[in-house]
Amino acid sequence: MPIPSISLFRHRGLTVTNLLRHASNIQHRHLTHLTIVTAAAKHQQQKQKNYVNKNHLRAKQHTLKEYSSLAPVLSPDNKPDLTESQAIGTVAASQANFMRVIVQQSEPSRTSDCNDKTGVELLCVVRALLKKIKRRVLVGDKVVVGSIDWVDRRGMIENVFQRRTEILDPPVANVDHLLLLFSMDQPKLEPFALTRFLVEAESTGIPLTLALNKVELVDEEVLNTWKSRLHTWGYEPLFCSVESKLGLDSLLQRLRDQTTVIVGPSGVGKSSLINALRSSPHASDAADVDNWFEPILGSKWFEDQRVGEVSTKSGRGKHTTRHVSLLPLSGGGYLADTPGFNQPSLLKVTKQSLAQTFPEVCAVGLLYMIHMLH
């Protein structure tokens, strides 16, 4: 009698091969779905990237177009074409985000009988694009002002002319002369502080005059001692006194027809000296000069400088000048009053250039070279 046999794997759907094939199909479908999703995500990312790139390119082109509308730094002799809402002027003062610009040249108006706007004082802001490209505007800069409202006397500084000279401490452009002012007493003259200021001044390469104020507070022996000492340093100091007017006439002669920056510690009498020089009766005796500040000499911005007292506790001066301003001398020339500081930065002085800031060292080196040549 035949024995019946039953195979557990006889059913087609339950074979091991079919089970593996079924699992493979499921995995393939999942992989296909994952591939489709990934491809779609990549497509979306590429689309967004292209969109960002287009916007970036559009912004870049717009920025380049803005940059191209800004002329390169203008040479001092450049005479750009001006519109009726443009003018060329000099930055006379800087405070916070505003600058006072005095017009030197403007486009004649076709609608007004009064075409000469020389000497007009404009309250200006600096064009944002200048800040973006880090083109700094300093007191003393010759600038192009645009978008001028001649009624309210406001405008926007659009471009800057190339500078002849520049000092950063304090920040002033187109300086012809440095007046380093110290006092013989109150505060007392200190060799270390004087040396630092002299090194800072010499590092600029701008001609300088050393003036020592308040000579009435010390005796003749002290004056002679300092005169001899400074002579060995390579300097011929000018002794002066705002109180007695001693030496002011000689100082005026040195400042005439130049843009001079007065630097020195607080309390040495910078503001008092400026007031004395600007009110000197001899200043108006000078020959007529082209002074485009003259129409605004009565402006509040150009009134006498504030004068502070010297601290009895520390013996140092108090800061009364808060901003840099260019002040006209009626006899010709301009004075830049600056905030006082007791420690110059010496940013431009290096180990290699330090010796060049000492006149006596340079003199010895020159004598040595002459000796070697002979």
Would you summarize the structure shown here?
β6 (166-168) and β7 form a beta hairpin. The chain has helices at residues 16-69, 128-132, 191-203, 220-233, 248-255, 270-278, 359-373, and strands spanning 87-95, 98-106, 121-126, 142-149, 154-160, 166-168, 171-173, 177-183, 208-213, 238-239, 259-263, 325-328, 334-337.
Could you outline the blueprint of secondary structure elements for this entry?
Layout: H1 16-69, E1 87-95, E2 98-106, E3 121-126, H2 128-132, E4 142-149, E5 154-160, E6 166-168, E7 171-173, E8 177-183, H3 191-203, E9 208-213, H4 220-233, E10 238-239, H5 248-255, E11 259-263, H6 270-278, E12 325-328, E13 334-337, H7 359-373
Parallel strand pairs: 3-5, 8-9, 8-11, 9-10, 11-13
Antiparallel strand pairs: 1-2, 1-4, 2-3, 4-5, 6-7, 12-13
Report on this model:
The chain contains 7 helices and 13 strands. Strands 10-9-8-11-13-12 form a 6-stranded mixed sheet, sandwiched between helices. Residues 5-13, 63-69, 283-297 and 310-321 have low confidence and may be disordered. It has helices at 16-69, 128-132, 191-203, 220-233, 248-255, 270-278, 359-373; strands at residues 87-95, 98-106, 121-126, 142-149, 154-160, 166-168, 171-173, 177-183, 208-213, 238-239, 259-263, 325-328, 334-337. By secondary structure, the protein is α/β, with parallel strands linked by helices.
